[in-house]
Amino acid sequence: MSFPSSKKITRILGAELDKLVTLPSIWLTLTGTFILNLLLAAAFTSVGLQGAAGTQSILNIGLASMRYLQAGFIILGILATCSEYTGGQIRTTLATIPWRGVQLSTKHFALAIITIPAAFIMAASGVLYTFTMMRDTAVVIEIDTMIKILLGATGYLTCTTLLSAAIGALFRRTTPALVVLLGYYFVVSPLTRDFPTIRNYFPDTAGYYMYMPPSTDEINYLTPMQGAGISMLWTLILITVAIVLFRKRDA
User: Fold this and answer.
1) How many CA atoms lie within 13 Å of 155's alpha carbon, on the beta-carbon side?
2) Could you tell me which of 33, 88, 221, 244 has the fewest CB atoms within 10 Å of its CB?
3) Banded pLDDT at 208 (limits 50, 70, 90)
4) 225: burial class by Cβ within 10 Å (0-12, 13-18, 19+)?
5) Other C-beta atoms lying within 10 Å of the C-beta of residue 188
């Protein structure tokens, strides 16, 4: 089977992007995640105002919701790939786009196009809310530092979404993929906190260093670049495995 031309790849990308944009569950997930993030930001900011606000950083409080915010992006990634298996839509897709590896690769790329701005807006909205409410009490961080950390948070949420999409492609069903990923991020990973040497190489822990605000109270086992490298490596490995299996399995 011949490889599609660059023009065909552009059309495939457009088709995959169109499918994601017109999928109601994608927008419901993003809207729900945005609202939840603002509610959590308000809650953490309220706690900060009642406590020793003078010693706290706006970034620490504004990004405190990231642990919960990632759940929405996990769901987003899983829905992006598992939705096509509902009602056998994947068969129609493959009849139109016979290049399986290209199809799944462009789906991930289209998902990244949607995820990057959404992740930045959500991460920035939490920080902006906290800044608005605590600008006179909390320790303010320089703008360039804030931008770097917000970009790191955006990168982490994007990697998490793409990794989740790869897991969704492996399981092909929403519920099992959700159970595995949410179980890992919210149960298994926290239980390994007593083993930092190993845990730092997990995708979520390594990703944390991508946006960890500067602090003298925490030990930085990894630099932001190292954290980004490990997180991206996990994502690329899982996407590659998903593509290989997708090419070998029946639709």
Assistant:
1) 24
2) 88
3) very high
4) exposed
5) 12
pTM, whole model, 2 decimals?
Answer: 0.91
Letter string b/e over residues 85-107, b meaning 16 or more CB atoms within 10 A of that residue's CB: beeeebeebeeebebbebbbbbb
The kind and range of the H/E element at 31 are helix 24-50
Residue whose tokens read 């790869």: 166
Q: Which two tokens stand for residue 194?
A: 């007593």
- Mark residue 172 as left, alpha or beta (left: phi above 0; alpha: psi -120 to 50; beta: remaining): left
Residue 43: CB partners within 8 Å, gap ≥ 6? none
| pLDDT tens string 22-74 | 999 999 999 999 999 999 999 988 887 776 544 467 888 889 899 999 999 99
Domain positions in the chain are 5-248
